[in-house]
Amino acid sequence: MSLEAAIVTLVFACCATVHFVGMFVVGILARHRVQYLSLAWILAIFFGIIGIVAMYGDAVVSGRPGLLNPYMLLMLVVGTYLQSIYSLGIAMPGFLQWSRMCKYASPVLLLAAVYVVAIFPAGQLTKVYSLDELFHNIFSLDLILRCIALLLGAFYLVNIIFLPRHLAQKTVLPLSLIAYTVLLILSVVMYLYTALNYTPFLLCGYVVLFTLVNFYWVCHAMSTLIVRIPHPEVMLSTVEEGEPMVVAGQERADESRETDFNEMNLKRYQRVQAWMQKNKDSWINNGFTRDRLCDETGINRQLMLQCLRSQGHNNIHDYITTYRVEEMKRLILAGRIKAVADCDMVGFGSPKTARSCFERIEGENLDTFIASRSKSKSADTDKVL
Question: Are the C-beta atoms of residues 54 and 9 closer than 8 Å to each other?
Answer without folding.
Answer: yes
